[in-house]
User: Fold Rieske 2Fe-2S domain-containing protein from Rugosimonospora acidiphila.
Amino acid sequence: MLSEADNALLTQTGPGTPMGTVFRSFWIPALLSKEVPERDGTPVRVGLLGEKLVAFRDTSGRVGLLEARCPHRHANLFWGRNEDNGLRCVYHGWKFTVDGTCVDMPAEPADSTYKDRLRAVAYPTHEAGGIVWAYLGDPDNVPPFPAFDWTFLPEGYSYATKRLQQCNYFQNLEGELDSSHNYFLHREFQLPENGILAPEDMRRPDFYIAEAPHGLLVVVKRNLDSGNRYYRITPFMMPSYTIIPTEQAADEPDRFTAAVPLDDHNMWGYTVSWRRDRPLNEAELEEINSGRVSHAAVDPDTFIPLGNLGNDYLIDREAQRTRSFTGIPGVRVQDLAVQEDQDGPVCRRFEEHLGTTDRAIVATRRLMLRAARQVQQGTLPPQRDNASSYRLRSLAVEADSSTPWEDLWRERQGADNPDALPAKLEEVEEWASVDSE
Amino acid sequence: MLSEADNALLTQTGPGTPMGTVFRSFWIPALLSKEVPERDGTPVRVGLLGEKLVAFRDTSGRVGLLEARCPHRHANLFWGRNEDNGLRCVYHGWKFTVDGTCVDMPAEPADSTYKDRLRAVAYPTHEAGGIVWAYLGDPDNVPPFPAFDWTFLPEGYSYATKRLQQCNYFQNLEGELDSSHNYFLHREFQLPENGILAPEDMRRPDFYIAEAPHGLLVVVKRNLDSGNRYYRITPFMMPSYTIIPTEQAADEPDRFTAAVPLDDHNMWGYTVSWRRDRPLNEAELEEINSGRVSHAAVDPDTFIPLGNLGNDYLIDREAQRTRSFTGIPGVRVQDLAVQEDQDGPVCRRFEEHLGTTDRAIVATRRLMLRAARQVQQGTLPPQRDNASSYRLRSLAVEADSSTPWEDLWRERQGADNPDALPAKLEEVEEWASVDSE
Amino acid sequence: MLSEADNALLTQTGPGTPMGTVFRSFWIPALLSKEVPERDGTPVRVGLLGEKLVAFRDTSGRVGLLEARCPHRHANLFWGRNEDNGLRCVYHGWKFTVDGTCVDMPAEPADSTYKDRLRAVAYPTHEAGGIVWAYLGDPDNVPPFPAFDWTFLPEGYSYATKRLQQCNYFQNLEGELDSSHNYFLHREFQLPENGILAPEDMRRPDFYIAEAPHGLLVVVKRNLDSGNRYYRITPFMMPSYTIIPTEQAADEPDRFTAAVPLDDHNMWGYTVSWRRDRPLNEAELEEINSGRVSHAAVDPDTFIPLGNLGNDYLIDREAQRTRSFTGIPGVRVQDLAVQEDQDGPVCRRFEEHLGTTDRAIVATRRLMLRAARQVQQGTLPPQRDNASSYRLRSLAVEADSSTPWEDLWRERQGADNPDALPAKLEEVEEWASVDSE
Assistant:
């Protein structure tokens, strides 16, 4: 069980907070590329880590991400004119480029040097896989961009969506890491044949957690009644990224997710689906847009999921009785139901009671808290420098019980990925003790 | 006039507050029975005393009232599966019975004793008169259930409704006890014949207040021009129950009311109408559902009254000029208009100016404050143990001036009710001094 | 740049605050006369300086402005009966006249003197130019009513409107004083002929600021390429009134504006258009009601402008590209866009960066802060006593460079206005230093 102080440390990411500094030391998703489709097009409001920002694509195609308030008298640059490689404030015409340089102050005297002495707050951006990423940390210490597997692929091989999730980011992150709830929250069944609970051998997993260059590897092992083993391996990548295990047997696309704080009570949830071998096909895109899987179907203007707390996530109590563990349609919306109202927008973890299936969550909390404590001492998280270690897929596969999981893991990552499993992996069992013990 | 500190003591009922402990030492209404009509049916969210709860009727017909958050990682049990005498959390399948026992943790190891060591927070319930009552206090010290008059009657003789009232509970309680405002706020008239003010003899009552085993008796006496006396006697029953005087001459049903804090800015208002002699008839039920009397017509999903602050309580200013003191339709909605916006959701009583008609209110405040101070010393309110004293009707009757009110009162209560007027009743005049003096 | 403490001093106007005392020492607009059109008509809720008030026109035609809560037990007098020269509370019938005298307590004993000892909080009002003005300060020290130019005119020569603006009053006041933004925010243009920026000689003005009996005179001078000068003179009149320069060449009506705090996050914006020479004609009234000029088109019930933050001020991004600096229709709505979301409802002025065009704003802040500091010492602002100095028009005119602005100013005010430019005007340049220097 977490202390109340550690719960605050874990969940608060505004300017000046330790965990805010952790997030600001990494490249994080800021918006979808398709939100700023055109050069010189309409600017977009962006909320990130408690900051109000505005994004725009300039005449040269670069995406700028500026503090929303004009440095002059704080009119919102969202109303600004996006023209000739800069955003011009409508109040008095001050104009800024994507890097925050002030290039015009049309009401100041012609010989004024004021504009050379003043800059807008601007954050560097990087577009990859349909997402505009941003770095909000020390401008003199920009880390390399992570080598996400899907950034090596041609257009069409990956597809990114986002949703507004109305809770603290960590509630979603815990769900992404929780390889156990899959057999409850997301279960569909037929009565009376297969019952509302999954078979015993699927419900009671063993956990092995290792620290890795990108964060953690969560290895979940189930001893099947058949004698085989079923492995699910979820990489946690700092600061808040995971790759959800997708069934290899079903040949499903891989799925990356990110939980990015908008503020301490709201977050942006990103999901990227990708295939290494070919473009996503129509059936796969249809499934993504349907909201049946990890992508939510959202309102296109607000990014609020169509199933949400205001409509009780479209729960169907009759369906809950007869064929669905929740009665809520769609995997992502099922997650929202348990995460958005998890004791309110910020879960009081100091009053919870953890079980054996929560070991990955406990380890992740401790990794994140260690990072927050280290930035208070002036040390940035080392994972930010391990860009190549982010090139990963997840794993969900049944195997002969004699095959070591490390072999399965290396094979899954592919021959061209030597960083997939480093020589030395430290077990972090002492981090993962739970209340049930 | 109350001090600012006493006003806070009176109005704050969340966990850990003195007045919260007073409320938690009594049986209080939690929801209507008809909100959980079916065994294994849909759970219901319940807000009570600042706590978030969930109610469900189990396979055996018992009503459970659990803390809404699962003890595990705080998913809301409202989404839970109500199945086989228990509520099962959809996140990881933990299952709890109505008394909070954990009967299943399907993802824990088969030999785990964790579920035997963990309980959900559960409160005992008792159904009576169409209401599910709950006791939120010390589980080792449950008081007897009060002998409300209408709990002795067959089905159909009583009828209960509830409404969400958007103010602190004490503003409503004061109104229920205020036997004077009836001749103003609720007055209908004809112009020019009978004028907008009631006759003088009805407007200016005398007050006599006595402490009784259940709380207080408020005896209001009016000397009529005819030489007769008109009595209205309102019992106040701890912690926040009253029986509104109904005209005996009109043979109206009796009416019980309860003001139950949802939180410090919202309350549940319950009204029970009943007859001792026969089932409520169609005309009486029609009047209840019409919202014309003490029952409000409400939205069936939210229990928000149809006349509310958002629509100015449907006030008709022309009607106000010509035939209604307020122009607001319905007795309960008239009450809402003066109570919900009584200097905001929490009236600043430390800035009011009391008159002679406020003696009952002053005495009630002092009784409640005494109870709040006593629980701070570790003594629970004695009224909780006097269950039989709660079996009361109110009184509103014209009588010869030579008849003592005590005789009228005893007769009204009936021969089988020896506790209706105890031998010793202490007058509490010294509690009831007002600013007008 | 302002300190954080001074920003709070400038923007907080609730009861007991220094700036609240400054506002309470002046006559301020409370509501439009047409909101209380009839004698004995419907009362009106009024929010002013963080206080909740109720206005009503009595049988004699006088407008009362009372604290909304009845002094008895704080029922809202808005529900009251407006009858026979007084407002009667619906809860217990207490009745008050426009000056707060209690004339009836119908439930108190016939010989009670209580009503003679109790008063409602009532503020004096004064109707002028379609506005009900109020004085919320020391009742024993009422200042003379200001001699606004339009109060000397017959009916029909002036027209007043109001709007609810959702930000702190000072953000609007700064906009009214900012004679520079006119050539940016409000600019319409044709492409490619005249470009999106106004000609250089119009964009870069010189400022001269003088202290005057009513507050300040802001003199803005532009040296035109033609050799002429273009002057715009804006009077600032304490506590928050301005007269916007209107083009004399275009023979436009004059325009007075007031920024009146509702609370610290909302304000009432008043605009009065007037002509000295004749009634406003149909074209002028049509322009006022259209929302194209300084008057906003508003919802008639809430006074919320039709273009507002909720609908992105009806911005048309295509129009912004081709013919309008903002793409937002209407001068007032353009102002709202930059003022209502100016770093939120209360601008953090301690983080801004001022330019040379902000001299008037800086001087006004300093004048207001001086007044706030003086009331803390017990000295009321002297401007409140200088009623005759408020009789002013603004000025916006092109002139030969040899003509002194003082001559233009005196001529504009008219022969019957000897107070238009006092003998001694103190320059306040030392108050107006900006960050750009």
Summary: Chain B touches chain C at residues 174, 180-181, 183-185, 196-197, 200, 203-205, 313, 315, 317, 320-321, 325-326, 328, 334, 337-338, 341-343, 347-348, 351-358, 361, 436 (CB under 8 Å). Chain B has a mean pLDDT of 95.
